[in-house]
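Assemble and predict.
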Amino acid sequence: MVANKFLHLKYLDISLADDDVDETAFGAYDYLSLVSFLDASPVLDTFILSVSYCSYYEDI
Amino acid sequence: MQDIWCHIHSLMPLRDSARSPCVSSNFLCSWRCRPKLTFTEETLGLKQNAYRKSDRTKKFTSRVDHILKNRSGVGVKSLKIAIDDHLNVDTCHFNSWLQNFITPGIEEVILFPPSTKNKPDYNFPCSLLFDGRGNSIRYLYLNDCAFRPLVGFNCLRSLTKLRLNHVLVTGEELECLISRSFGLEQLELCSCMEIICLKIPFWLDRLSSLTVSSCDKLQVIESRAPNLSTIELYIDPVQLLLGESSRVKNLDLEFIREVNCVSYAINKLPSIVPHLEILTLHSGREVYS
């Protein structure tokens, strides 16, 4: 059980950003799966999620 | 009073410091004992002038030679020589500068040696560090060269920070290089394409920071350094062996070619870095198979 958890993790910063114009990079990504990080980190006090996307998507 | 002048000189740009003896002969001594020497096209006054490329090499070489003729390398604490790719400085010439400026007492050496077509063909002569000349170096930053220390290498005893960028060095050679640097605190490796296995021995107990980026052949990082607390990895996944007593608290991770950095982190990292407190992930693509 212990091996599956970040028992001391206080700060988590995840940035999801594709360098190229690639609509498949996170197209099928289930962002809610990131909840598993929160479940695994009982003492987390800061969670930063940065998602950047291309202007390509703005028209959609 | 002389000490104050020397200190002021050490804070001045190289060109101003070199010109100051024109104002007063008293400044000549301050210039000659200037502890920090930075030789780049800019500090040698070649940037803003419209020299042709072939002339730039001649000017660069003659100006460094001239400085060397007017002062010995004794007293140099910090040396930086950056030869831009378009300059065609002869490596024997470059080595002669190092031979003169790397003297006992030097603390900082930053080198961008001459290179051709971006191929690191310059071979840094380890002998430059022999006879106690490397033992005062605290910060060594080498770029674009081959560095081949042999077993028993013991010439960098005061080293606290080592940066290697585009350096041809094997894992075994790197181990020889750092294994007697007991005060090493920071190790940074970038584009060192010959390293397959990076081993850090347990007696490097001051090592706190390890950064590895774009080392494409790397497969294993094995660290026994007991106080290693910060790791930054910008490489594809490797086998990370940090030992059960790992104190790594801060990890920054980004894959170069592979995908699923975030998935890797949640699945693998809890057992590899159990004491992690700060985790930063950069992912360019997450794909579930």
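DSSP finds one helix and two strands in chain A.
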